[in-house]
Amino acid sequence: MNEPAIELRGLRKSYGPLEAVRGIDLRVERGEVFALLGPNGAGKTTTVEILEGHRRRTAGDVSVLGHDPGRNERALKERVGIVLQQTGVDEYLTVREVVEMVAGYYPRPRDIDEVLDLTGMADQASQRVKKLSGGQKRRVDLAVALAGDPELLFLDEPTTGFDPSARRQAWETLRGLARLGKTIFLTTHFMDEAQALADRLAVIANGTIVASGSADELIGAVNATTRIRFRLPEAVELPDTFGARREVSAWEIETDEPTRTLHELTEWALGAPAELIDLEVSRRSLEDVYLELTAAVAEA
Amino acid sequence: MSGLRLTLRQIGYENRAFWRNPAAAFFTFAFPLLFMAIFNVLFGERAAGFFTPAIIVFGVVTATYTNLAMMVTIARDAGVLKRIRGTPLPAWIYLGGKIGHSVAIAFLLVVIVAAFGTLAYGVDVPWGGLPAMLLVLVVAAATFSALGLAVSGLIPNADAAPAVVNATILPVLFISNVFVQMEAAPRWLDTVSHLLPVRHFADAMMELYASGAAAGVPWTELGVIALWGVIGVVGALRFFSWEPRG
Predict the structure, then answer these.
(1) Domain encompassing residue A163
(2) Of A192, A220, A248, which closes a domain?
(3) Does residue A85 share a domain with residue A180?
(4) For A76-128, what is each residue's pLDDT tens digit?
(5) Domain boundary pick from A205, A220, A235
(6) Which of A22, A243, B59, B98 has the highest Cβ tally under 10 A?
(7) What pTM value is reported for the model?
(8) The dihedral of CA A175, A180, A181, A182: what is its sign?
(9) In a 3-state reduction of DSSP, which class is residue B64?
(10) What is the predicted pLDDT for the residue at A223?
């Protein structure tokens, strides 16, 4: 099927005089992992909650699996799984009971044990939700979202508040779901999360999309994409022609012609002679690009 | 699954969760019995024919109105309602499960209170009035459930729930022949009490307890209670909220 999983055209949402979302266009293909990346208050949750059917839009066209989520249709809800920012399950039931209860709402649920395995909750299955840690409750949330075997999964800041190892674990789970062919739409304010998980991403700031594409495309879209860093022995000075920046004890050059720059740099170093201590050649990170993009909007 | 089966299934899960909070479950039943024991000490056994139906009324109102308004507000603010809203489960089935369970608890309470009144204080069970009494109980339980859902929409956050719920129901109970006889009350207060549903529920139950089959079906009282039921349903549709507040 060529129909996209999600399509947004001219989406707007106002809360009184405040415009939280100011005309967004997005398209998410089936089987894709898509990340909506942006700082707090940028409009991420508003956008994803409109897609989930939790909020009404002010204007624009929204299609989720061919349905308008504003209509609160059961046929759409049967194909979608949702993980909200806030956990919300009955605390006196056990993990297995909660997943079983929700699985019964769907026409073709996924096997309960499989869901518990996928989310790493098999060992806690007979524990009451009340007794679980915050991270475990988040995983119960994910298990609840997967109970109906959805085609499309919405995750609103799925790893906020996780410690680093729990985040890695959550990423592995989500990658596993992507391999099963699920379409995943996630919001995050972590650049590394978007880069690690998403096939494509869009950066949202102040209610508008400021950039979109794959992580590589986004990084490539900004000039001077390679960064060269090194230190020099004491008393050796680098000629101004390299346009380098001095950062405490290290030198840093940004270039979009890394081959040429490196060649000139090593030629100079051999002639000086001087060692390029701790020489490091790296691509600009998505984080740099992201900060640049969102800072530009904040200034405007 | 059919709607009825799903509703029964929800009631089952509600019931499991209910009994896993033993302190809450215990006091739901112990509270009315404690009141009966106190009334007995204060007024003596001759008054048992009055306070047994009164405590039945009190039990039904707390098990439905008070309990539902609090539980639903807490579930709303904990994000449980919003979570359910994102699943294909129809809203009326979820709420039907909560109401169904509250009504079941209310009926269990009625049986316990009636049995206690008969066994401990020798109150005659009005067998002849039982069909009419069942009708009154069903209509009242439905009405106070609907009013509980409606009032939850007016409660700003879970912390405020006990205050709002008690402030709306305790004064009404005091002017409705439940705790205090209204014989000596001024005319205007008597009129106010007749505009509210608890008075009619209490009067109907007392009449049926006193006269049994001879009391007939209390249509006027049933009518007023049902009218409040309609107000409750309209209010719930208007004010009920799935989104956490506060």
Answers:
(1) 6-220
(2) A220
(3) yes
(4) 999 999 999 887 899 999 999 999 999 999 999 999 999 999 898 999 999 99
(5) A220
(6) B59
(7) 0.85
(8) negative
(9) helix
(10) 59
- Interchain pair B87, A77: CB under 8 A: yes
Closest CA to B121 of B51, B211, B202: B51
Structural domain includes residue A289 = no
**DSSP string across A189-241:** S-HHHHHHH-SEEEEEETTEEEEEE-HHHHHHTSS--EEEEEE--TT----GG
The candidate with the shortest Cα–Cα distance to B207, out of B105, B45, B37, B56, is B56
Averaged pLDDT, B184-192: 93
| Burial (CB count within 10 angstroms: exposed 0-12, middle 13-18, buried 19+), residue B90 | middle
Would residue A30 be called left, alpha or beta, if left means φ above 0 and alpha means ψ between -120 and 50 degrees? beta
Q: At B216, which amino acid appears? A: G
Measured between beta carbons, the chain B residues lying within 8 angstroms of A77 are: 86-88
Rounded distance, CA B148 to CA B123, Å? 31
Q: Is residue A288 part of a domain?
A: no
Q: Measured between alpha carbons, how far is A107 from B148 in angstroms, rounded to an integer?
A: 32
Cis peptide leading into B186, omega within 30 of 0?
no
Residues A213 and A236 in one domain: no
Per-residue pLDDT of B115-153, as tens digits, reads 999 999 999 888 999 999 999 999 999 999 999 999 999
Query: CATH no. for residue A75?
Result: 3.40.50.300
Is the pLDDT at A295 greater than 80? The verdict is no
Instruction: Give the pLDDT band (50/70/90) at residue A239.
Output: confident
Within a domain: residue A290?
Answer: no
CB contact under 8 A, B82 and A80: no
Q: Which residues contact A75 (CB under 8 A, 6 or more apart)?
A: A67
For chain B, what percentages of helix, strand and coil (3-state, to nearest 5) are there? 80, 0, 20
Does residue A150 share a domain with residue A250?
Answer: no
The answer to whether A69 and A102 are in contact (CB under 8 A) is: no
Number of domains in chain A: 2
Q: How confident is the model over A175-199, as pLDDT tens digits?
A: 999 998 999 999 998 888 998 999 9
Q: Is the pLDDT of residue A300 over 60?
A: no
A83 at the B interface (CB within 8 A)?
no
CB contact under 8 A, B86 and A74: no
**How close A240 gets to chain B, by Cα (Å)?**
59
- Which backbone phi and psi does B15 adopt, to 5 degrees? -65, -45
Interface of A with B in 84-143 (CB under 8 A): 84, 86-93, 97, 101-102, 104-106, 128
Residues A37 and A166 in one domain: yes
CA distance B189 to B80: 41
Residue A246 inside a domain? The answer is yes
Nearest Cα residue to A194 out of A293, A89, A120: A293
